[in-house]
Design a protein that fits this description.
The protein is mainly alpha-helical. The protein contains 17 helices and 3 strands. The protein has a domain of 181 residues: Orthogonal Bundle (Retinoid X Receptor), CATH 1.10.565. It is found in: Cytoplasm; Nucleus.
């Protein structure tokens, strides 16, 4: 409660009521007002955000070359293991085959087949994502430190939600699985001293864990196919559910106001905003989809799939060909107008 009293958003908090549809201060109205108002000032704001992107790209054009995509694209044919005809086939052997197949799949790497087209579409979605967050009054009234923490935590999930809403699909192409020795030296630095100085430490692999840094995601210049498939699986899930504009707005609110972020000043208030987002979504679904009693649960399941999507992978896949050596955090700070530390 003390944290809530210290927030700049006390007026908005006081305006909320138990009925999420009854108060103009509720997140239900804030998010929808944000989404509807976005279209009116779309062009002017989009130009400003695109200018910010262009300035950051210019800073790297003379300092370093952007990520180069591997020219040797290999096609892999996958065959499903045939089941044993004998009912007494050893279970251990089957598990070993599955483990081998899983390990090989996790090592597969890929990149965008048409990076120019896809990165341009992703950049446009990023502009819309930034505008969405900045137009939500509950977000703007938070202390800047809380705003920055929420942006750092949720930008990738919000972007992927935006890709789903705009139906941005993309094709990928597999690249050679292992980086060359030169790539390992360039991406990991000095040789491994534990091998007497002669060996080279292995390039850090991309992980599905959202906690990995951007530097780890950039290793090798490509993404693991398992991480790319996590993004594509989420997009397919959203398109299968045929999520409406209002549902996307409520889902974005639930992602933006994440009380699990460490160090939040207005923790209790942000918890209430997350709760209200879910309540507003549930009430809307009950009205719009009376026959489908499981739709709300399906939407929450889709939302949970975002946890498997790593922000460094999103930055690497969709923005490294555009911003080059610039860190994604610099782009976000510039676009949101935060002071660069």
């Amino acid at each position: 409660m003390a944290a809530l009293e210290g927030c700049h958003c006390r007026g908005a908090a006081g305006g909320r009521s138990g009925n999420s549809g009854g108060s103009s201060g509720s997140i239900l109205y804030s998010i929808l007002k944000s989404d509807s108002r976005a279209s009116s000032d779309d062009h002017q704001h989009q130009h400003r955000q695109q200018d910010a992107l262009r300035r950051l790209v210019h800073k790297t054009a003379t300092s370093s070359s952007t990520c180069s995509f591997s020219s040797s694209i290999t096609t892999t044919a996958t065959s499903s293991p045939s089941s044993s005809s004998s009912p007494t086939a050893p279970l251990l052997e089957l598990r070993q085959q599955q483990a081998c197949s899983c390990s090989a799949t996790r090592r597969r790497r890929g990149t965008l087949r048409a990076p120019g087209v896809t990165c341009k579409a992703a950049s446009a979605v990023l502009v819309k994502t930034v505008r969405f967050a900045k137009n939500v009054p509950c977000f703007r009234e938070l202390p800047e430190d809380d705003q920055l923490a929420l942006v750092r935590s949720g930008w990738a999930a919000l972007l992927v939600l935006g890709l789903a809403q705009d139906r941005v699909d993309f094709e990928t192409a597999e690249t050679s699985a292992e980086p060359s020795m030169l790539q390992r030296i360039l991406t990991t630095g000095a040789p491994d001293r534990r091998r007497g100085g002669g060996g080279v430490t292995a390039a850090p692999e991309l992980s599905s864990s959202p906690g990995r840094g951007v530097a780890a995601a950039a290793a090798g210049g490509v993404c693991l196919m398992v991480d790319i498939q996590a993004i594509k699986a989420f997009l397919k899930k959203c398109w299968t559910l045929d999520i409406s504009t209002k549902e996307y707005a409520y889902l974005k609110g639930a992602v933006l106001f994440n009380p699990d972020v460490e160090g939040l000043c207005c923790l209790h208030y942000i918890q209430s905003l997350r709760r209200e987002s879910h309540q507003a979504l549930n009430e809307h679904v009950k009205l719009a989809h009376r026959q489908d009693t499981t739709r709300f649960a399906k939407l929450l399941i889709a939302l949970s799939m975002l946890r498997a999507i790593s922000p460094p992978v999103v930055a690497q896949l969709f923005f490294k060909p555009v911003i080059g050596a610039v860190h994604m955090e610099e782009v976000l700070l510039e676009m949101f107008g935060f002071k660069v530390p």
